[in-house]
Amino acid sequence: MSDPLCNDPLAGCRLERHGPLVELVLARPARHNALDADLMQELIDCLDDLAHRHGQPLAERPHVLLLRAEGRHFCAGADLNWMRNQLNGDFDPSSFEKNREDARVLARLMQALDELPFPTVALVQGAAYGGALGLLCACDIVLASDDARFCLSEVSLGLVPAVISPYVVRAMGMRQARRYMLSAEPFDAITACRLNVAHRLCAPEKLLSEGRALSMRLCRNGPQAMKETKRLLAAIEHQPGHQHEEITVETIARVRVGLEAQEGMQAFFDKRPPNWRPRFKDET
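User: That's the sequence. What structure does it adopt?
Assistant: Structure tokens below.
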């Protein structure tokens, strides 16, 4: 896969293509992959590009995104130099506007990741603090290294985890969000699984291989079916309960008569792989 960001040694992230699987890699390990406005915009650009490619022919479109990071840490939260530049002494309106612009960049990043029209898998090792934890909560599936640690540290700095809060609350629930947002208490990978921030633990040396294996397993599924499933879940989340019957009935009726579903069901009865499924080494 050829991408401008892939060939830019100064970029904070890059895209790698492995057939239907695309990996989005945080690539600033010397800075613990900390977030600043530039890196967040790079990530938004990558995600927007991937969303656009999903409309390409089946053989060319990405089916699954694997979000991972180089180095010891997934992401240490906000970049310290970027935070230092936000110090301004007394309040002034221009600083307020600049901070609002920066917050909107993070909001767009969270939304772009959350609304990507195909599954997202995240791998987390080391630290996932502040906004990084929000990114994980916006992904569909999260695998955590045994040594990963997490923290909503904002209030310890006199800040508020505002932009990421809808995603964090959705993942861990309001009761647990109150505890960890108000206490800024670090928690380990086992607790992250209990809180629904992560789904599975992995030994550090197996995190990447298990993450790729899971991602390729997802690539066996119908890409349009996965897109429709994500759309359905979002609709159920945001629509009142009395509308769920219409949403669910309309979705399955529309999908069932589509080409992908017809191919999938026919392939099942023919005892053959459907035409969207990539060929793996263990298949003949």
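The CA atoms of residues 114 and 138 lie 5 Å apart.
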